[in-house]
Design a protein that fits this description.
Elements: E1 6-11, E2 14-19, H1 30-45, E3 51-56, E4 60-62, H2 74-77, H3 79-98, E5 103-107, E6 110-112, H4 114-121, E7 124-128, E8 132-134, H5 146-153, H6 155-163, E9 168-170, H7 171-177, E10 182-184, H8 189-201, H9 205-221, H10 224-239, H11 242-266
Parallel strand pairs: 2-3, 3-5, 4-6, 5-7, 6-8, 7-10
Antiparallel strand pairs: 1-2, 8-9
């Protein structure tokens, strides 16, 4: 069943949504994205639920967007539909930002590209100290991922990560930079996130909703929402640049690993 890709369970006032595509490192395909939204719908409609946890099954939190090689390319879609597709994904992430109850992301293993956006959209982000938080390995887009990062870690760090394809930081570094609230040993993550969820749940839900709105409103006054949605515009433009077209030609010719190797060779890194 499609619902199996996003598991939903409750424990008192806490609901947990588990992304369940471990064989794909929980890459976000349409079924998983829909399953996450259905889980949020259930938690929002249930007055007993005060906090939502988001986690991933297997050895990763989320490997980002599932780029199905059999799917339509940006050239086949056209710039308008490509931009709409990207905005739809961003609005899915923003559901966590707009959700009327606090959300906690529990990040372990790999957290890549769109997966990092999902983690940051949650109100609180807990990471395994040794998790690998990574930008895309092939420079095809621009603005989709980095727009989220800029608001959380600042332009200098965002540029460092975005300019270097495949750049990666650990959970410890992510906490120092402002991506996450706390870094913990991986085995301690579930207990810590549940404890924090229960501590949050002690506050009445109407107060929690207002507290969240008051903080989010400050960020939105600073342009947060426009910056997030604007990432779709920039990414769609980048997809039609000559540089992105060249990257896609390399992938077709050499495969993903071969394309990365060719970039390393061109830059004298091989």
């Amino acid at each position: 069943m499609a619902d199996d890709v996003a598991l939903y369970e409750t424990d008192g006032p806490v609901a947990t949504i588990t992304m369940n595509r471990p064989d794909k490192l929980n890459a976000l395909n349409a079924a998983l994205r829909d399953g996450i939204q259905r889980g949020l719908d259930r938690a929002e409609a249930d007055p007993a639920i005060r906090v939502v946890r988001l986690r991933g099954a297997g050895r990763a939190f989320c490997a980002g967007m599932d780029l199905d090689p059999s799917g339509a390319t940006p050239e086949q879609m056209g710039v308008g539909p490509d931009r709409e597709r990207l905005e739809d994904a961003i609005r899915g992430f923003m559901r966590f930002w707009e959700f009327p109850k606090p959300t906690i992301a529990e990040v372990h293993g790999f957290c890549i590209a769109g997966g990092t956006m999902l983690a940051m959209a949650c109100d609180i982000t807990l990471v395994a100290a040794d998790c690998r938080i990574r930008f895309p390995s092939i420079p095809i887009g621009g603005g989709f991922v980095s727009s989220f990062w800029t608001l959380f870690v600042g332009p200098k760090k965002a540029k460092e990560l975005d300019f270097i394809a495949g750049s990666e930081i650990t959970g410890d570094e992510a906490t120092q930079w402002g991506f996450a609230n706390h870094a913990l040993p991986a085995e301690a993550l579930p207990a810590r996130s549940m404890l924090m969820a229960r501590q949050i749940a002690r506050t009445p839900p109407d107060l929690l909703k207002l507290k969240k709105l008051s903080i989010n409103r400050i960020c939105e006054m600073q342009g947060f929402r426009q910056a997030m949605l604007g990432g779709a515009d920039w990414d769609a433009l980048c997809h039609f640049s000559e540089g992105a077209l060249e990257m896609r030609r390399r992938i077709v010719q050499h495969g993903l690993k071969g394309a990365i190797a060719s970039l390393d060779a061109d830059a004298g890194l091989a």
